[in-house]
Design goal:
The chain folds into 3 domains: 216 residues, HUPs (Rossmann fold), CATH 3.40.50; 101 residues, Tyrosyl-Transfer RNA Synthetase; 76 residues, RNA-binding S4 domain (Structural Genomics Hypothetical 15.5 Kd Protein In mrcA-pckA Intergenic Region, Chain A). Helix content is 45%, strand content 17%. It contains 18 helices and 15 strands.
């Protein structure tokens, strides 16, 4: 391990939210470097879904940084704990999975992880190795390490308790089992998202009670999804997830990754740069200044899109995706696969808002009218702003809504 303690700390803590405890981390790094002994860095993943996305990549990028510094990263597959269900951030009971469902997800999960991690420097373990072997006596001993009042310090548990919503006993077990994973692996550091802080600290608490040095804890931010907005100087939105359909998958096709990135809000894209880009902090600040000075934000988003597609595919794929995106989604281009619709009307004309709703470009007539009046609709490549605009029966029209997330439809107006 050639880098100094200061260099380690600079790299390790960039983008981190919580570091428990920095002084201990510095001391243990000094000891490890002097003894040329890599630290054991644990990250647990419950493979509840098979596919990884950029939200997962934030944490895995931090894992790779530890590997590049010479440390041992343990990719812990939570085969057992996934069947329990992590209650973190949940207002209700999390659905439980079967072992078969977990194992199927874990197979693709770990393979996709090596798009970021160094396979040769990753120790893959499953917590079923030791948790399956736990006796009832072992489990009681583990439960005796933490009080119920400590568990109720968790915001989600405390809120559910206050609201008189059920908390099941197996949910209390989850932080304890995750903490015991650290005991079984003799970890020096555990990494996780900010929503995992309580669970990580439980591991830190119980390790000394098993005669081990307490692990240090480091958390990274949760990446907001592609639908997030920038409001009042802050990024606002749900975290990236497949269930919210606001994700960029690591295994998606290059053009899909490029297109989704280009749909990110012009200001939110800097959050993506800060958490995932290999660019320096100074470079990111410069890009922000250039945008403020009038640089086209699409150029800046394209920089990130190229970097991400290159990372998870290659440079040729990134170049091809960018060119395909320009061909299909440039301001003047109409995609080749625009869907054809036929919409019937009783009279000689069809209200534009009704046409938009009928073909699924908006959810309702009211939304369609408002979008027209706001200048968000084009008919045959010309913007219309009259909320009562009419389409003539017997004619075919090209309808377009939106500018950043453009959608098209060909509509032929027919009589009933």
């Amino acid at each position: 391990m050639n880098p100094s303690v200061e260099e380690h700390l600079t790299i390790i803590t960039r983008g981190a939210v919580d570091v428990h405890v920095r002084a201990e981390l510095e001391a243990r790094l000094k000891t490890a470097i002097a003894a040329d002994r890599p630290l054991r860095v644990k990250v647990g993943f419950d493979p509840t879904r098979p596919d990884l996305h950029l939200g997962h990549a934030v944490l895995m990028t931090k894992m790779r940084q530890f590997q590049d510094l010479g440390h041992t990263v343990i990719l812990l597959v939570g085969e057992f704990t996934a069947m329990v269900g992590d209650p973190s951030g949940k207002s209700d009971l999390r659905p439980r999975l079967t072992r078969e469902e977990v194992r199927a997800s874990a197979q693709t999960y770990t393979e996709q992880a090596f798009k970021i991690l160094d396979r040769d420097r990753t120790e893959i373990r499953s917590n079923s190795e030791w948790l399956d072997a736990m006796s009832p006596a072992d489990l009681v001993e583990l439960m005796a390490k933490v009080t119920v009042s400590r568990m109720l310090e968790r915001n989600d548990f405390a809120q559910r308790f206050a609201d008189k919503r059920p908390i099941y006993q197996h949910e209390f077990l989850y932080p304890l089992l995750q903490g015991y994973d650290s005991v079984a692996l003799a970890c020096d550091i555990e990494l996780g998202g900010t929503d995992q802080l309580f669970n990580l600290l439980v591991g830190r608490d119980i390790m000394p009670r098993y005669g081990q040095s307490a692990q240090m804890v480091l958390t990274v931010p949760l990446l907001e999804g592609t639908d997030a907005k920038f409001e009042n100087g802050a990024v606002v939105g749900k975290k990236m997830s497949k269930s919210a359909d606001n994700y960029i998958g690591l295994a998606e096709e290059p053009l899909v990754m490029f297109r989704k990135t280009m749909q990110v809000d012009d200001d939110v894209i800097f959050r993506y740069f800060e958490l995932l880009s290999s660019r320096s902090g100074e470079d990111i600040v410069r890009l922000k200044s250039e945008k403020a000075a009038g640089r086209d934000p699409r150029e800046i988003k394209a920089l990130f899109a190229r970097e991400i597609v290159t990372r998870f595919h290659d440079a040729d794929a990134a170049a091809a995706a960018e060119q395909a995106f320009k061909n299909i989604y440039s301001a003047d281009a109409v995609p080749d696969d625009v869907t054809e619709f036929k919409v019937a009307t009783d009279g000689p004309t069809l209200w534009i808002a009704k046409a938009l709703a009928a073909v699924g470009l908006v959810k309702s007539n009211g939304e369609g009218r408002r979008l027209v009046e706001q200048g968000g609709v084009e008919v045959d490549r010309a913007r219309v702003t009259d909320g009562q605009f009419q389409l003539e029966r017997g004619k075919r029209y090209l309808l377009k809504v939106g500018s950043k997330n453009r959608r098209f439809a060909y509509v032929t107006v027919e009589g009933t």
